[in-house]
Amino acid sequence: MLPALTLLFSCQLAGEALTRLAGITFPGPVLGMGLLLVFLLLRGRSTAGLDGVADTMLKNLSLLFVPAAVGVVQELDLIAANWIAIALAVATSTTLTLLATVLTFRAVSRAQARRHP
Q: What is the pTM of this model?
């Protein structure tokens, strides 16, 4: 378990360090997740320890949203002042995400149909 946690936190640390060193405005943990993906692809498989840690984290994922919820509650005045822009941004991004998902699904379905007639 400890090696798996070390791997996860090392990837997150590497992502944070790379974004800060490069001076880019990109979430370090997201880059770290990409580094973990590359590591797992190069390795070809995951370990039982990493699988166990990931399962435990996923079971308790709701706890990770508590800080975000606290941040939202702390900024209620700002949200109230800008609720129209926020609502439009959420509606637009949701629509674009659904559209991208449908187009991707259709493209993959067509590609699979051509491959396996």
A: 0.58
